[in-house]
Amino acid sequence: MWRLKDILLNLVGTKCLNCGHVFYPPKAACPKCSSRNVKKVSLGTSGKVITYTVVNVPIEGFESMSPLIIALVDTGGGKVLTQLTNVKPDEVYVGMEVEATVRRSATTLDGYVPYIIKFKPKERYS
Amino acid sequence: MSKVYVVGVGMSNVGRFYERSLRDLAAEALFKAIDDSGNLTPEYVVVSNMLSSQAEQENLASLIADYCGLRGSSGFKVEAACGSGGAAVLVGYSLVASGLAKVVAVVGVEKLSERTTPEVARGLAYAADADFELPYGISFSGLNALVMRYYMMKYNVKREEMSAWPVLMHENGYYNPYAHLRMRITVDDVIKSPVIADPIRLLDSCPISDGAAAVILTSEELARKYNDTPVLIAGIGNALDSTDISSRYELDTFLASKLSAERAFKLAKLSPKDVDVAELHDAYSINGVVTLEDVGFAPKGMGAKLVAEGRFRIGDKPVINPSGGLKSRGHPVGATGVYQVCEVVMQLRGDFPGVKVGGEVGLTQNIGGVGSNITTIILRR
Ligand SMILES: [Zn+2]
Asked: Do B138 and A55 lie within an 8 Å CB cutoff?
């Protein structure tokens, strides 16, 4: 997990310099045109929920965080699979505006406590 | 390239067998398949499995070949997550087609009943992206739930319409003596069953099962000599998509389902309308529905609606999942793709002991990950 801290804490995707396709997670070559001429790009820190689920049956290691709200968020740059926080399961909806925040994830099976980006409902200042 | 025939099939029952070992299940299937073939001796034992490491056992080809009296034969394990079985049949096919071997046994086996549900759920999630999905705690059900919600919203599919899939699976599986869950269910049962990963409910989900299945593959020359009912592997194709779902082009289409089916149909010189019977990989209702469309049996967005209207049951063409599919027959993970081939071969030979379809052309499609590694096989009598 340590080797991933920059990517998981900064939402870095890849942009293809040949065809312009932007995607997340980062890859060594473009899935559309196979070009290796790609560069890391920041995906932005806010977006909209495209689809989501509430996981009631957790995988090993995530029992204490259940139920988990997992969403696919469109940041405009690329789609990101993430966890939603600061929101109740029945308050989530498709199209909801969310923004990135740093939170701790479940302790890994080898005892490491990773911090990762989750998304929370976008605060409105009116 | 030599033509490749299936001349022997063998299956153990699918279920939870606390008293049986992995090698014991594999031996039952392999011996049945060898006996069914007219007693051909495999030169290769190709094993398919996903999660034997959870039972601290790898190196399965040596283990199973030696346990079954085939010390000195050749072999190895093939792994493609839940799609291991189909991939292993493709490897076995290649060995015979290339002329490297004349007789190949493909043995799919999975034995998970000693593990807890969270352990198995974590193991299955290893088919997803370990660096970019696992840290969020997403389960395999959760990933498929993301697809299901998206699909239902995009095509305005009602919960009742999605529920027709598992109801049909249990209607078929009720008659399959090998099946894990042999009971009939109603749309109401599905809608009232507990939520696993919203909108996926318990009765949208396959059971995780123990089981083993085996096929004997051979060349045309030996097939005619030893067997009265050889079934031709007329086409076979595999395709890959991303392990992650974030970078998918479309959430409601499995690209690898479409591409692997196109490759298999091209090799067989056939098309979806020629298929009499198919076994699709419905780990969840949504997978059955989406691949029904991607293989070419239903227009996009219409899969669930057509099943709800009564299509794809006995008497229709094609009949889908007369075994009961993963939902009712069960999902012995790395063995599932081999079960599908056994079932369709038996359908074409006319000796499947459950819902009987008959026909001349059959298809199997086996999925690894959330549509990321898919093998499609076309069988012809
Ligand atoms: Zn490109």
From this structure: yes
